[in-house]
Please model this.
Amino acid sequence: MLKQYFKQAWQLIKQNKLFSSIYVAGTALGISMVMVLILVLSFKTLRVYPEQDNNRMLFVKSAAMRPKTDEMKFWSSAISYEGLQKIFFTLETPEVVASEIGRGDGGYVSMPDGKPRTRISVRDVDAAYWHVFNFAFIDGKPFSEADFQSGLNSVVIAESLARKLFGTHEARGKTIEYDFVEYRIAGVVKDVSTIMSRTYAQLWRPYTCLGYYKNDNGHPSGFLGPYQVYILAKSKKDFPAIREEVNEQVGRYNSGFKDFEMDLLGYPDDIYAVSQRLSAHQPLNRTSTILFQLVVILLLLLVPAVNLSGMNSSRMERRLSEMGVRKAFGAARSQLLNQVLVENLLLTGLGGLAGLLLSYAILLLGRNWVLNIGYTFGSGVPKDIPVDFSMSMLFNLKIFIIVLAVCLLMNILSAFIPVFHSLRKSITDSLYIKYN
Model:
């Protein structure tokens, strides 16, 4: 029976090419807008190389110091080296705590054979960074804790940079000149997509080789500085305990101040909160953010669904006589309803497939601006660097399930109500329309 429904539906689509084309195009536009939004949101929390464990990570990107005499006044920045040592590196609950100096604009690396120097993206990190994130080393290994503590000029570079400099990924032990300083290459890692804004770089170096790594930003408290913190928990279940331990450490730290009080501004954040936070000074309201995103998705679905529902209603009015004849010959209302829904499902499926392809085309062609939508507070795609991502980031089971759910919802919203209303008419009314 279902096979027969699809055959009849295909014949009707071929007979009504204009209606079918408009219907498919309307569905495709709605689906593509929803898909682009979902993909942009999902890219912020993707569990892919090298951030496969970000679901059990907490992040601290900024803090504030407030005068005890004026709570409305405050200074905000990232964390100082002293703050790292006294609050975060003393934590006992997490598996690993790592840190990095907030990213700048990068610098220039000297090229072989007298070629012009090339600008690259650089991250200044500690040795624990390599235990928090799962980088794939294809040559050598990360700089060690001993290298980090000694402040040696030992770096890790990306595979693409190694090939550009040496013609091969086997670069361990070789030297590289970055901003007129010579560094020894400890290891080479597989390239990281620029979408992974928390880990993307072409060169990683220990921040202890920088002469200013212990400097704060001049605030009297000595707490504010340039560092961000990554906390890897043994399990997501440890998040409350880690936050409680952090608050205890902050309380101890504040007890040493007479004039100031430190505020972590709602941090540590989990991966969803840190990717959605709109301001360094305002903790994320998770409920309102999720509701807002759901409302936007619902509106993107409802606008085309209402238009398609109107088209379906007009179409059903023209088919009333057909339904009347079929009911007169004994067809049950449920059979007619199923057939029309299958017809509409076929159209919606075609529109959904077209919308899926359109959403991927939008991301591929407009990725340098689309993927910066919604990225705020220093978490966006690095400037002047082309956005790249693997197709596996687009094609995954979760996204396909969402697409199927969206197609089904579009089908129900746009077809069920007008079809059900039309089929409630009596045989006499349906046949009357045919002859009048």
In short: Residues 374-382 have pLDDT under 50 and may be disordered. The radius of gyration is 29 Å. The chain has 15 helices and 15 strands. Residues 61 and 228 are 5 Å apart (CA to CA).
